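Why this split exists: single-chain examples teach little about how molecules sit against one another. For that reason, every record in the complexes split bundles all components of an assembly together and asks for one structure covering all of them. Below is a record exactly as it appears in the raw files.
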Amino acid sequence: MSTGILMEMTIEEVRAFRPEVVVVGIGSVEPHGPALPYGTDYFICDATVRAGVQQANARGARALMYPTLPVGNNVNFRAWPFACRIRVQTLMQVLLDILQALAEDGARKIVIYNSHGGNTDTLRATLRAFADTQPADGGVFVCMSSSPPDRSDPPIIQHPSPHGGESETSWIMHLHPDLVRTDKLDVFPFGQLAVEALSGPNTYFVRPWHRTVPLSAGGDARESSAEKGQRLLEAAAADLAELLVQLSQAKWTEAFPFNP
Ligand SMILES: [Zn+2]
């Protein structure tokens, strides 16, 4: 029985697998403050996609995990050394090439799984650009997914942060405990906007990250734990698995994902 993890399969297993849905994870490699490794977003993405694919396939889906892409968009991280980055247009082109190759291999349902906020707008634009290459009906279906909102009561994470806080620290404590410098966990400061009107959800600008989180991590990370990280992984993997099972089971028609 194949796992659906392409990196671990042989040519015979891949030929026999005939996936219904392919998942392409994309993370990022960039600084995450004094306590966490550069690879945080990549590790989270790869672990979630792996667990989601395995769960889905155990439930009868046929989902194939493409290799997780480690490098994404980080134009707003350039103040820090070796914040790995490719340009917006390059990432779009890389993804369009991958989508086209998957289509040539017969994939008709593709999920892009994103674990880095800096990629989101580029991925959405890429989906639109790819849709423009497909016929109005019967084209390759591509959607995006990412970790679900925390529905636990009380919430798993007490001190939400967009970067390097309790959530990401808990993830890495669970996935790679040896990589967390627990003696460095602290309350990491956020930069303050001089123009308060820019703080609302209805305005947008590309935030220079060294001004937003001056230590390259923000928020109170002191209550992070491996147990919280495990719960975050379980929730994210179950959410992705459900998507993959439904996509896998849904019959392919010209109108997909709608009823004909
Ligand atoms: Zn991160």
